[in-house]
Amino acid sequence: xxxxxxxxxxxxxxxxxxGMVGRNVIELxxxxxxxxxxxxxxxxxxxxxxxxTEYLRQHRPDIVVHAAGTVGGIQANIREPxxxxxxxxxxxxxVVCAAREAGVTRLxxxxxxxxxxxDAQNPLREEQVLQGELEPTNEGYALAKISxxxxxxxxxxxxxxxxYKTLIPCNIYGRYDKFDPAASHMVPAILxxxxxxxxxxxxxxxxxxxxxxxxxxxxxxxxxxxxxRAVDYFESLPALMNVGIGRDYSVNEYxxxxxxxxxxxxxxxxxxxxxxxxxxxxxxxxxxxxxxxTAETSLEEGxxxxxxxxxxxxxxxx
Length: 318
Hints:
This protein has a domain at about 10-175 and about 215-250 and about 285-295: 3-Layer(aba) Sandwich (Rossmann fold). The chain is about 40% helix and about 15% strand.
């Protein structure tokens, strides 16, 4: 994936540097000579606002990119709504307020398409945030993300010199993803499940629901590319902007593509008693296209790269 731009920014303070999105951002930033400050939890606890403020005052980054977050799939969100709400709310508030106190004039916050109402008309447009009831299975996480996006807006409204903006990515997957079934999102969970079925010689794989629910997943490397472009072209970046691939697929299609990637040949069975979340979640990426950015990685190519990473990192295959 090519990365072009003037990159006048020389130093980014990145939260969530050990996560999937953060690690992809760091890899791309190194290619263009941008210094990334991404302290781990031992070095800097993001739950301590005073410590974050002092760190920013000391290191004086050109921009803060807030990519840290507690994330997980449907099972994890249903099981631990308190943790998903408070972790994301507390850390987000601390980072935004610390940046304001330290006088950092540019901040890029990562939201989530979970911020949109469950019954909103697709594709989801930025102005639809807070225009309806949220999806119950991840409401706590969504409320936290909405709150931090609004906080960024309020800071910029009160102090126009502080330009704090939010990207709303669709669902993300890719290299450095989580493959633990108890915590993973749909695409890595599918790849892990299909790989296990292949190794075990299983003829069937279960799909939650009837498989007709539709989702939009983007390769993490594409999101990293968009983030670096936003850093470089921050002045023209809209204050709130969706980032997606521009189309969605059914759950059944994700399993079918995953089966080709993994090399599993069997049949799928559906458990319609299990929760499936929103019936469709496709973001409107017209603002991003107008701004000059589109995703480059096809779903099958991205799943292939993710599966190769899974084999190498989880199973040690060369």
